# Entry
Amino acid sequence: MSKERARRREAREQEAAVTEAARASSAERRERSDARRRSPRSPRLPRRARPTGILAARRRRQLGGLAAGLLALNALVWLTFPDWPMRMMVLIVSLLVAPVLHTMLFRR
# Structure
């Protein structure tokens, strides 16, 4: 009977040692990750929270619509005109005019 108890105790201790080793490894990984995050020279920049709310959604929708319109215009020019200077000119002009169009179309 005592040999059986000794074997069970040994199995429990072995299982506890494996569990403790896994827990220590996990804690060490977490500490290293936290230290990297706290480091002033962290390679990852902190994520900025995306603005929420009605105004932010409207602004995203407006910018998306304007970008889709300019993309459609550039695609139409790309398919219509075979010469590269015209394609590049329309692309550059659309990039320069985009902020002006946004201001004129979606005035506050």
